[in-house]
Amino acid sequence: MKSTKNFGLWALAWPIFIELFLQALLGMVDTIMVSRISDDAVAVVGLSGQLFNALTTLFMTIAGGAGILVAQKLGSKRGEDARTIAIMGFTSSLAIGLVISLLLYTQSHAIAGLLHVEDDLLPLWNVYVRNVGGGMFLLATIASLSTAIRNTGNTRAPMYTGIAMNVLHIFLNYVLIFGELGFPKWGLAGVTVSDNVCRFLAALVLLYVFVHSFERKIVLFDLKIFNPKLFREILKIGWPMGVNMAGWLFSQLAIFAFIAMLGAKELAARTYMNTMESFCFMLGYAVALAIQIRVAHLFGAARTREAYSEAFRALYIGLALVTSNALLLYAIGNSFLRVFTTDPDILAIGHSLLVLNLILQPAKMLNMGMNNSLSAVGDTRFTMVVAIVSMSLVATGCSYWFGLQAGWGLIGIYCCMIADEILRGVVVLFRWRGKKYLLRAKTETRPPSADSEAAALPG
């Protein structure tokens, strides 16, 4: 069984941060390399990335719910249940990923029509979506395995895997896009080959770690395991998380479609800003992911008072980190933008977005930190309802009205995104302070000592 020392906030957070940093660095290098192909290629990668993110919610519904339960079961000393849940999370996510891969590979042109992709972008779109989308089952494998491994307290293995794969990905991108070192010059198609090769190797490494992550080694025969009772527990937590995530990502996809209607320059500017913002928020996001694992483990162990206070401790740390990073990005952001493009219109738009980012990032941290804490204790339906209402009316509806109809453009859309994050963040903050789920002491996963612990909660 994993030692509880693996579930300390910083022990969990720093490997996650390193992994996220490398992913963001890879994203920046990818964007720079793709920008050398054309701004149209950047626009295709940006828009298709939103599509891929939206579709990942279909398997992250299972993987996310399973991950939280793995941490809870380990906290309550039910290692066999944790093992069974992790296996079901992996096999179910893989099955869903295979269906998504088939859909994207065969229907890329039809999907382009739904997203109003410009005709000039269609050749690049079909190459990228068919090839990268066809490998989505590999992403499903990586996501489910990484989530399960992290929730055992082992956040280092995904980090080390990420380091190796990112180095390889940058190398393959370089030689396959530009035809260096005797490799063929494939342009955007080279990026798709690089993506799938690296995902395949990462999946193999994580699978090896996964089978050794529990007291009893996972063998091939175990992949047939299916426990209906435990699977219902996964769905109980996971489906609202999946709807929440899907709502956010489809909202972002709609917003990207609105931006695409504004023009290719606005779409390219938003794509460049996405890359830079990922650096700005990664420390806070690492803390948010770590606190979800920690709160779930503490909740499973009936240490409810500590779970309550740890959520606020993580929030304060995260707010300090993302605010500092937003200020730093504002100071150096214009120079970074010139790494991607020299187009004066795109640079002007980017400068305005850097100012708004000073408000957006702390708002995202508040929302993410409190949402993850509530999810860790199983209070996922409330966050789902709040998210769907706010994202539908404020993020998406207002973005369309102010961004397109009122003529505020990309600035108006950004203001609506900020309003959505603030609204949701404040609502879930008050929900956590109400301690509804923490005060539910008598559950199947928690020992009788939970009653005295819950009664001692502050507030």
From TrEMBL:
InterPro entries: MATE_fam, MdtK-like, YsiQ. NCBIfam families: matE (TIGR00797). It holds the Pfam family MatE. Keywords: Cell membrane, Membrane, Transmembrane, Transmembrane helix, Transport. It is a multi-pass membrane protein. The keyword Translocase does not apply. The lineage of its organism: Bacteria, Bacillati, Bacillota, Bacilli, Bacillales. This is MATE family efflux transporter. It comes from the Bacteria. PANTHER family: MULTIDRUG AND TOXIN EFFLUX PROTEIN MATE FAMILY, NA+ DRIVEN MULTIDRUG EFFLUX PUMP. It is found in: Cell membrane. The chain crosses the membrane at residues 7-29, 49-71, 83-105, 125-145, 157-177, 197-214, 234-262, 282-302, 314-332, 344-361, 382-402, 408-430.
